[in-house]
Amino acid sequence: MVTRASSGPLVRATLLLGLLLASPWLRAELAAHVDRQVIDENDVIVLELRFGGQTRGDDFGRGDFGFDRLEDDFVILNQQRAHQLTLIQGRPHAVSSWSLTLQPKRRGALTIPSFSIEDQRTEPIIITVTEPTDQARQEMARMVFMETDVSSSEVWVQEQITYRVRLYYSENAVLFGELPPMPRFEEAVVEPMGGASNHMEVRDGERYLVIKRRYALIPQRSGTLELPPESFVGAVRLSTPDGAVRRRNLRLASDGHRIDVRPQPDAWPADTPWLPARNLTLDDAFDPTPTRFRQGEPVNRVLTLQAQGLAASSLPELNLGSAAGVRKYPESPVLDEDRRGDRFIATRIQAATLIAQVVDFIELPEISVLWWDLDTDTIRRAVIPARRFPVAPSTLPQALPDPEAANGRARIEATDSRPETPVGEIRPWPAMTLIAILLWVGAALYALWLFRQRHRQPLSTIPPPPHAAAERKALLAACSANDATKARAVLDRWLRACGGRGDTLLQRARPESRASLRPLLDELDQALYSPTAASTWNGSALARWVKHYDRGTHSRRPRPAALPELYAPNR
Description:
Elements: H1 4-22, E1 29-34, E2 38-40, E3 45-54, E4 74-88, E5 91-104, E6 108-112, E7 116-117, E8 120-121, E9 125-130, H2 134-143, E10 144-150, E11 154-156, E12 161-170, E13 174-177, E14 188-192, E15 197-203, E16 206-219, E17 223-227, E18 231-239, E19 245-253, E20 257-262, E21 276-287, E22 293-294, E23 298-308, E24 326-330, E25 334-340, E26 343-356, E27 361-364, E28 367-373, E29 378-384, E30 387-392, H3 403-406, H4 428-455, H5 466-480, H6 484-497, H7 505-508, H8 511-529, H9 540-553
Parallel strand pairs: 2-9, 11-20, 21-28, 22-30
Antiparallel strand pairs: 1-3, 3-5, 4-5, 6-9, 7-8, 10-12, 12-16, 13-18, 14-16, 15-16, 17-20, 18-19, 21-23, 23-26, 24-26, 25-26, 27-30, 28-29
Helix pairs in contact: 5-6, 5-9, 6-8, 8-9
């Protein structure tokens, strides 16, 4: 007869041995697996590698694999690496893991090669890539699709093209991923026209959310400009009719475009810079207004050249010409670009100071700009006609003659390119000095006030940790926006930052607050996992709980410690 007392030690020893053998943390072990081995060509897979075992301190983090071998059959879309070091029975054990998102390059049987570290080696994994079924392709096409278009397929060289990228997805779906980056071409200049915009659109009776980006393309060479297809890789999450939530990886591609870029027309003068534009205007203005020229006194002239459909760098320099009896001091030009609809508005501003040297008449020459009208495909000329102005004697006081110069000293004529400072001009240095003194005094008073305010803070108030305050602010913002997903994630981090050490949200909360938090968590989880409740979740109740919880956390007087902690954590 076998008694229970005699079998107890044997059972316990057997269980202990089984736990030791089953634990991958206690021996060196390398493993590789994928989430699926059969996918269609529009899908992606996730490869995970894990190496865990007993290790020395200097071995932690070892095991860098040559993942470039995967690029024969796959595109590596994402790669993440993580490490974990734990103590088991007083001995260090390390676990390193790698997670890679792979996109197949073709159909058929693709191989994930073997990986090795030390004496461990994984087995190769065969991935079968199939053609999507017609049903799967139609279902995906109704759910998510991408389109691109251009404003014109035939343009002149250096004429602006508007290139639009639009991503459509069903209003019942949740989309994960990033839009493709800004395209780059060697034969064209690309400029973004603002950020991404969002709107709602109805297609074939279905409502879609649309993310749109616009770019301005300016071809720099004639010929054919090839715009390759845009691609999007991400995932979509849908709720099935039975209430389940399903997430599917996806890969989209748009159509490409061919642009015929025509060279300069034969009628364009060979010695003139090529300038294709729309609505080009050339204007000038004078200061003072009305314009009065007096001998030796400055007059400012500002020329403004503006055009649609080209970059500001394409606008030509403005030749002010020369006029007898006038000194000219041009300033550096100012270039600016704005947007009106789908077109650039380019502006070039050229200013100059004019000083008449004679009491008579001066004549400013004609200024013109030759340009190609893209609306009519004709040569046009923007002109500011020649202008004739009378010059009156100067109103400035005349300086007294220098007796030494009258006695025969050589007269030195100033050759500085800058105009002399007019009499009566206010010099900026005294005013700038006064402003600097006032700013310095203001800064000192503000620093003194801030110092006094800080020292008046009651000793019974302990400010929350900076990271806890940031998480609390983010949580209240999520509640105000009724964003259930963000509120659930930030609530966990905020309670942990406030000192919670439990494994769940309820354990991180203080005991007296758990009862009131439980129904709020139930309501929040129901909003997250029920597609009908997500849009109706109201975060006001959770916000009130956060404010009440926070009021009791940071208003207690700290109990003075007898001695400071030996290993106090960094704050």
